[in-house]
UniProtKB/TrEMBL annotation:
Gene3D superfamilies in UniProt: Vaccinia Virus protein VP39, Winged helix-like DNA-binding domain superfamily/Winged helix DNA-binding domain
Residues annotated as domain O-methyltransferase dimerisation: 11-81
Organism of origin: Lysinibacillus fusiformis
Keyword S-adenosyl-L-methionine: yes
UniProt-recorded name of the protein: Methyltransferase
Length: 345
């Protein structure tokens, strides 16, 4: 048996598995099977798909253990349930985002590298985030993915280490989207008021979500642009999964604007992934994430030393590092004139 050849061929065909799952999601297969099993003929009728093509399409989903088949009846297995929109821990929005936006950009990877361009520049006429403003469909796909990802973020290890819940009065979430992250902070900091800062087109989503969570009396939305100015008077600033969207110069601009608004007692909490300082075999998914963010918008994932360089040029420094789940870290940052405290790593 050609083990190496089979491994290479399997990796080469990985794109087809991605398209298989994405297509199943777009067709509504996982949603249709979430509550109960369906006979292939009934499923084909409900989804308006040719029965023969549907059966052939379902076979690899069965082989990959997303779906179970018995006498032409199909039902979801645990992996398939995670791709149904009804699931609490659903990855449907992430899959739709990947299929609708990331995959077309990756198809231009070779050409872009040869031309010294970012792949999305060969597909889109506008910068990535400008397109979010002017094309509602792109915004909806991106927003749904980020909203679900933020909901699933777990900050238990960070809050367990904090003892200052009564000291924080004002929390400002920079680029806070529809508020999923700041709500987690307001639940812990029970005496605090919050402000979500983001572009104007996000306001309706943010206000609806804050009302849904029951925090509309303690948190407001304020239109703003972190490249121009950041509100003062925050005891705690949040910057969640923002810096990886931007190359170094832009990231430093964002950080300097926040630093200028921070008081001596303010803290900035940054949520990002951190790459290993040296290449590690078990971190391949992080390196692919780094390539993906570059392909999408020209951003980058960073090592701790690369973050420290950004902070140094922005008048900031790391106070502590808190490992979260799914390779995320919360980086607590203060202004440079404070004494460094050993982080938790």
């Amino acid at each position: 048996m050609d083990i190496q050849g089979n491994m290479i061929r399997s990796t080469i065909q990985g794109f087809s598995t991605s398209y298989l799952l994405y297509t199943a999601c777009e067709l509504g297969i996982f949603d249709a099977l979430y509550q109960e099993r369906r006979h292939v003929s009934l499923l084909a009728e409900e989804l308006a798909i040719d029965e023969d093509i549907l059966f052939r399409f379902m076979r690899p989903l069965v082989a990959l253990k997303y779906v179970k088949e018995e006498k032409n009846y199909f039902n979801l297995l645990p992996l398939g349930e995670r791709l149904a929109g009804q699931a609490k821990d659903s990855l449907k929005d992430f899959l739709l985002f990947t299929g609708r936006q990331a995959m077309p950009y990756w198809s231009k990877l070779c050409e872009a590298i040869k031309m010294n361009k970012i792949p999305y520049q060969l597909v889109e006429k506008q910068p990535y985030f400008q397109a979010q403003i002017q094309q509602n469909e792109k915004f909806e796909v991106f927003h749904n993915m980020m909203s679900k990802t933020s909901e699933q973020l777990q900050l238990d290890t960070y809050f367990a280490a904090k003892k200052d819940w009564h000291c924080i009065k004002t929390i400002i979430d920079i680029g806070g989207g529809s508020g999923e992250i700041i709500v987690k902070f307001l639940e812990y900091y029970r005496n605090a008021q919050g402000v979500v800062i983001d572009l104007q087109h996000v306001q309706q989503k943010a206000e609806e979500k804050l009302a849904l969570y029951g925090f509309d009396s303690r948190c407001t939305f304020q239109a703003g642009d972190f490249f121009h100015a950041v509100p003062r008077s925050g005891d705690l600033y949040i910057l969640s999964r923002i810096l990886h969207d931007w190359e170094d110069e832009a990231a430093i601009t964002i950080l300097r604007n926040i630093a200028e608004s921070m008081s001596e007692n303010s803290a900035l909490t940054i949520i990002e992934k951190i790459l290993p300082e040296v290449i590690e075999g078990n971190a391949s998914h992080l390196y692919m994430t780094d390539l993906n963010i570059w392909t999408m918008c020209g951003g980058k994932e960073r090592t701790q030393s690369q973050f420290e360089a950004l902070f140094h040029q922005s008048g900031l420094k790391i106070k502590a590092l808190y490992p979260l789940k799914e390779d995320d870290y919360l980086i607590e940052v203060v202004k440079k004139d404070f004494e460094y405290q050993e982080g938790i790593l």
